[in-house]
């Protein structure tokens, strides 16, 4: 998701790549991917936090608590904190970080091509200005909606997981085309464009 967001923000012109930073700890292939489009890559998350006004936690849900608690001493009310980790509630994010200026966002992978469907909910100390900034940031990679956090499980099921179901539908349409005599490449192209059209 971090790559999708970063690529989308850069492609939209919202931010130049040198204004975006990330940390890559072990997988050198990930470092090369981010560096290939100009994003600053640091060896530690502490360096990213130090250099950032907005910190987006884009890690797997099972490691978000560890990631936040390890950075707790570096986080302050001067930094807007954003989480895109599915299933992790604002109250927990705020408790682990010791900060209430948190915004929870549920984007989806079409952010890479500027067609994300993202939903946000503001933490207790996040201001309307913070919300507007996050809406602009994620709005640069698609459409941004706002909803009460109690709706986020349904949001995750619909728009967070929805692209995977659409990929299955495209594959099934293409399989039907192949069964009717179309070459696979043509069938996939037609199925993909058919789904894109509506």
UniProtKB/TrEMBL annotation:
InterPro entries membership: 6-PGluconate_DH-like_C_sf, NAD(P)-bd_dom_sf, P5C_Rdtase_cat_N, P5CR_dimer, Pyrroline-COOH_reductase
User: Could you tell me the superkingdom of the organism this chain comes from?
Assistant: Eukaryota
Q: Which GO terms describe its molecular function?
A: pyrroline-5-carboxylate reductase activity
Q: Which residue numbers delimit the Pyrroline-5-carboxylate reductase catalytic N-terminal domain?
A: 1-87
Q: Which UniProt keywords apply?
A: Amino-acid biosynthesis, Cytoplasm, NADP, Oxidoreductase, Proline biosynthesis
Write down a Pfam family by its short name: F420_oxidored
Q: What is its EC number?
A: 1.5.1.2
Q: Name one GO biological process term.
A: L-proline biosynthetic process
Q: What class of enzyme is it?
A: oxidoreductase
Stored Gene3D superfamilies: NAD(P)-binding Rossmann-like Domain (3.40.50.720), ProC C-terminal domain-like (1.10.3730.10)
Instruction: Identify the residues that the record assigns to the Pyrroline-5-carboxylate reductase dimerisation domain, covering every copy.
Output: 149-197
The family line of this record is: Belongs to the pyrroline-5-carboxylate reductase family.
**Name of this chain's protein:** Pyrroline-5-carboxylate reductase
- Please report the organism this UniProt entry assigns to the protein: Orychophragmus violaceus
């Amino acid at each position: 998701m971090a790559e999708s967001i970063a690529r989308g923000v850069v492609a939209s012109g919202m931010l130049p790549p040198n204004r975006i930073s990330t940390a890559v700890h072990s997988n050198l292939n990930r470092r090369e991917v981010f560096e290939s489009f100009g994003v600053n890559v640091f060896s530690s998350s502490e360096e990213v936090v130090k250099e950032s006004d907005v910190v987006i936690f884009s890690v797997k849900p099972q490691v978000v608590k560890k990631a936040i608690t390890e950075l707790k001493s570096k986080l302050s009310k001067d930094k807007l904190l954003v989480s895109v980790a599915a299933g992790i509630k604002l109250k927990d994010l705020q408790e682990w970080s010791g900060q209430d200026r948190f915004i929870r966002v549920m984007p989806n992978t079409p952010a890479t091509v500027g067609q994300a469907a993202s939903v946000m909910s503001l933490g207790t100390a996040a201001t309307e200005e913070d919300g507007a900034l996050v809406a602009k940031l994620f709005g640069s990679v698609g459409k941004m909606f706002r909803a009460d956090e109690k709706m986020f499980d349904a949001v995750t099921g619909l728009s967070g997981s929805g692209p995977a179901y659409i990929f299955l539908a495209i594959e099934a349409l293409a399989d039907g085309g192949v069964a009717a005599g179309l070459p696979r490449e043509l069938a996939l192209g037609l199925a993909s464009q058919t789904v894109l059209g509506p």
